[in-house]
Structure formats: structure tokens, C-alpha cells
Amino acid sequence: MRFRDKNHEQYEGDDEKPPEEVGLRDRLAHFTWPWFACTMSTGALAVVLGNTPNTFTGLQTIGKVVFIFDLVLFTIFNICMLTRFILIPRKILGSLHHPVEGLFFGTYWVSVSLILNCTYTYGNSSTGAWLTKALEITYWMYCAASFLTGIIQYSLFFRLERLNVGDAVPAWIFPIYPLLVVGPLAGTILPAQPPDASWKIFVSAIMFKGLAWAVSFLLYGLYMQRLMTSALPSPTTRPGMYVSVGPAGYTAAGLLSLANQAPTQVPPNYFTNISVPDGEIVRIIGIASGLFIILFAYWFFFVTTIAVIVGSRRMSFSLNWWAFIFPNAGLTLATIQAGKVLKSDAINGVASALTILLVIMWFFTAFFCIRAVVLGEVLWPGKDEDKTMTRLAWGWKGNRGNPEAPLTLPGVMQAPRSVDRAAVTLNDVFRIGGHPRVEEDKKRNIADYLYQTHYSYYIVSITTTTTTTTTPTPRTSTNIHQTNNNMSSPATQYVYVPNLVGGQMLRLPIEDISSDDEITTTQQPIASPTLSSRYTRDSSPSPSVESVESEE
């Protein structure tokens, strides 16, 4: 099956121009994690429909239909993602720390949480005790997976990526997002759980909610710094600003939901010996905390809405548009819970109005999403979040025979080894890059020619020797070219030789290179420079490059 690009956009050069015709496998090779924002939004809508205060005959049936549709979408998306990883195995781990796509891995787990939430909401009344036990087990499995996701993903970003604060977006919160929805999930399944299990779930939900809110609040600071000191996100990605509504919204919803159930969960004199039951004290504190946060979510909602309206004429579809629904569903759930604790018909009316808006925005976003797939605006080589994934070509066909496509662990290098003699000269370096004018470029700053990757490297040490052996051969052919004309020239000129020794990159001072040099690797890491190879096409600015310190 072949597909043709129905858009005719202008690109600066052939290297940046996506292919006009691709196959189904080429498209599935770019099925990225942000697609699960669709299932997250659909599941969130089903949860809201099952909890909205003002109901009518048939609303529960509509909610069940939405839930079943969410299950179907989630299954299809899992198959598509599995197909993508089978076609290009290296994307399994590469997608988890990619500076754009990797942030959306949390949407997968949030989708799981919302499915569990809907399972109780729509299935508890028509099933037996087995569902209660199954939800207890899956709850703890979900908490463990979400906790590990928050730790591992942030560790990968801290070690392998360098994100610019000036480009901070609410999506930086996504790795911890799965823990933000633990509170609403626990508040939903608690009533059916036996006393011992419900108490443990109640306590764990508060603890995980505290962790998620604390991390989110720290990242809120970076996002606010970006808004105050840099430009707003581009109009196309501006709907993603609604993600900032979610942490406060889901936190408020979780606190209010758990607070309502505190009198039945907390033993009367568990913390104190006073006459007032401890559960009532916890309830008051929880309600006050939830109400304290909820307007923070509304503030971000209105700020983002203004930004989206201002840039609406320049917007084109991206998967960020699904942020119209799922973060605002958290705000709606918080409003529903606030209406319950305050017994306010006015607040319940606001919750119903928000529910209607969510339904409208879901259909609006779904229409443009389907349209974008048909026109080739998304799910197309060179147009998705993974288009800047290093050392990989666009699509599936371009990666056949690519030695970088198989699965490799991030940051894991081959064992350092020595080479007796490396006939490395400027001629050899430029020959590797296929540069036609060697003599003229000898005088140029070779340090401006960088080789980008997300892997760790080793500094090379060079000692003079007269030993003569065979010359090592580079593992892959690469193009060395100038990627940043504004970099300051270092005091010492270096040549970066990719994949010359042990599959690593060598950093060689020009004046020290001769045909009789012995090159040995050491354990000292250096910063990752910028990449360009025949397996990479980058149509967006790369992250800023750290300065490389000279070896002492």
C-alpha cells in the first residue's frame, strides 16, 4: 500500500523535504508516543461523563460507548507501536529519551490509569467481587510502573539530553504525569475495597500525589521563566500549553475525592486522642487543600486560552491538539468534586458546561486528526516528533542496512581499546566526510565541525610511538559539516573523527596528528556534540551544544 503526500509545502533543501510517496511501513515507523494523547483524551472524556453531576437518561450508555471506543483505540495504538519497534528496534529506547517524543511516554500510562478508572465506573455494578480484587492488583502494578517511569525517564533526560530553559514547555511534566492521576483513580476504586486494602490504597495515593505535585510545581517554575523571558510556543504547538492545567486540576480532583472518603478510611484515633475523629480532620484539610489549588488550574486555563485564540489563524494540526481535552478533563473533575463538597448547584452547572465543551473539543480535534492523517500532515516521514532522532533515516525503508537501527542501550559504549597506529591526517578526516577541498579547509576551525549523538563518549589521549600496524577503518561513513557558525573558536583546534576506535568518537588536536601516533581511550566523558550523517535528517534546530573541556 502506497500513500502520496497531499500537501505541497516549501522546504529549503532536499535534505529537509519529506518524501512525496511512502508505504504503510514507512508511516508506521513514525507512530510516536504522542498518539497516546488521543487515548488519554478519550479515556478522560469517558471518566468525566461517568461523574458529571447533571445527568440524563442514556448518559451512562454514552459513557460506556466512549469507554469501549477508548479500549479499541488503545489496542490499535499498541499494535502500531509494536510494529514500529519491530521495524526499527533502536527506536524502543531512543524514543524514551528523545527531547520531544520521549516526553510523551507518560501519556501511555495515563491512558492505562483512565482505563482502570472507567472499568470501575462502568463495570462495577454488573460484575462480581473478582473485579474489586483485580482493580486492587492492577492499582499497585500501575503505581509501580508509573513510579519507575518517573525515575528512569528523568534520569535519562538528565544524563543524555540538554534541554534549553528558553524552550520549556508543560510537556516536561509528562514523565511524572502518570502519578498525578493516581489520586482520582484511588478515589474511584476505594468504596468497593475491603478495609485493609482501602487503607493502604488511601495512604499510597496521598504519597504519590504529593510526589507528582512537588515535581510538577518545580517544573512550573521553569515554564513560567520561559513565558516571562522568551516567546510563546509556536501557534501550532500552543494547544500543548493546556498541559499546564492538568497537574493542578488532577491534584485538586484527587485531594477532594480522597478527602470525601477520609472519614470512612482513617480510624477515629489513628493520629490523635481527641474527641473529633481523625478522619474528619483529614477531610477538612483535604478539602481546604483542594480548593486552595483549583483556581491555579483555572488561571492556567484562561492564560492558555488567550494564547491559543491569538495564534489561532496561524495554527496547523499537530498531536498537541489533544491537549484541548485531557488536561481540561482534570479541571472538570476538580470542579465536579468541588461541587460535591460545597453542595453548590452553581459549581455543578459550571462542571456540566465544561463537560459539554470537552465533548465538542473532542469531536473537533478528532476531525482534524483524521484529516491530518489522510493529508499526510502527521504519521509521515519527516513530519512527526521523531524526525530529529539521531543516526536514523526517515521511514522504514531508509533504515534497511543502517547499522545504527538495531537495538542499543543508551549511553553504553563498546569497551575501550588501543590502536597501535592510526594514520589520521586532515586528508583522512575530510576523506571520511567526503569533503572535496581539503587544502583550503586546513586553515579553518575544525572544532566547528561537530558530530551529534545522544551517547556518552571518551576523550582520547595521544602519545608518540613508532609502532606500525594496520590502519583502523571507520565503522560508518559520515558527513562532517559545519552546524553552528556562531560558536566561539577554542584555543586549540581539534578534529572529531567519528567511529574510528571501538565505535567511539575521537577528539584529536590538529597539531598532534601524525601517521605515527598511538591513540588510546580513557574513561573521562565529554559532552555530546552535534550530529549529521547520512542516516539523519534534521529539519528543526538541534539542542544547544555544551562546550567541550580540554583534557587535563
Automatic annotation (TrEMBL):
<dbReference type="InterPro" id="IPR030185">
    <property type="entry name" value="Mae1"/>
</dbReference>
<feature type="compositionally biased region" description="Low complexity">
    <location>
        <begin position="467"/>
        <end position="478"/>
    </location>
</feature>
<feature type="transmembrane region" description="Helical">
    <location>
        <begin position="103"/>
        <end position="122"/>
    </location>
</feature>
<feature type="transmembrane region" description="Helical">
    <location>
        <begin position="321"/>
        <end position="339"/>
    </location>
</feature>
<keyword id="KW-0812">Transmembrane</keyword>
<feature type="region of interest" description="Disordered">
    <location>
        <begin position="514"/>
        <end position="552"/>
    </location>
</feature>
<dbReference type="GO" id="GO:0016020">
    <property type="term" value="C:membrane"/>
</dbReference>
<feature type="compositionally biased region" description="Polar residues">
    <location>
        <begin position="520"/>
        <end position="534"/>
    </location>
</feature>
<keyword id="KW-1133">Transmembrane helix</keyword>
<dbReference type="GO" id="GO:0015140">
    <property type="term" value="F:malate transmembrane transporter activity"/>
</dbReference>
<feature type="compositionally biased region" description="Low complexity">
    <location>
        <begin position="539"/>
        <end position="552"/>
    </location>
</feature>
<keyword id="KW-0472">Membrane</keyword>
<feature type="transmembrane region" description="Helical">
    <location>
        <begin position="201"/>
        <end position="220"/>
    </location>
</feature>
<feature type="compositionally biased region" description="Basic and acidic residues">
    <location>
        <begin position="1"/>
        <end position="11"/>
    </location>
</feature>
<dbReference type="InterPro" id="IPR004695">
    <property type="entry name" value="SLAC1/Mae1/Ssu1/TehA"/>
</dbReference>
<feature type="transmembrane region" description="Helical">
    <location>
        <begin position="351"/>
        <end position="374"/>
    </location>
</feature>
<feature type="transmembrane region" description="Helical">
    <location>
        <begin position="62"/>
        <end position="82"/>
    </location>
</feature>
<feature type="region of interest" description="Disordered">
    <location>
        <begin position="467"/>
        <end position="486"/>
    </location>
</feature>
<feature type="transmembrane region" description="Helical">
    <location>
        <begin position="241"/>
        <end position="261"/>
    </location>
</feature>
<feature type="transmembrane region" description="Helical">
    <location>
        <begin position="281"/>
        <end position="309"/>
    </location>
</feature>
<feature type="region of interest" description="Disordered">
    <location>
        <begin position="1"/>
        <end position="20"/>
    </location>
</feature>
<dbReference type="InterPro" id="IPR038665">
    <property type="entry name" value="Voltage-dep_anion_channel_sf"/>
</dbReference>
<feature type="transmembrane region" description="Helical">
    <location>
        <begin position="137"/>
        <end position="157"/>
    </location>
</feature>
<feature type="transmembrane region" description="Helical">
    <location>
        <begin position="31"/>
        <end position="50"/>
    </location>
</feature>
<protein>
    <submittedName>
        <fullName>Malic acid transporter</fullName>
    </submittedName>
</protein>
<feature type="transmembrane region" description="Helical">
    <location>
        <begin position="169"/>
        <end position="189"/>
    </location>
</feature>
<dbReference type="Pfam" id="PF03595">
    <property type="entry name" value="SLAC1"/>
</dbReference>
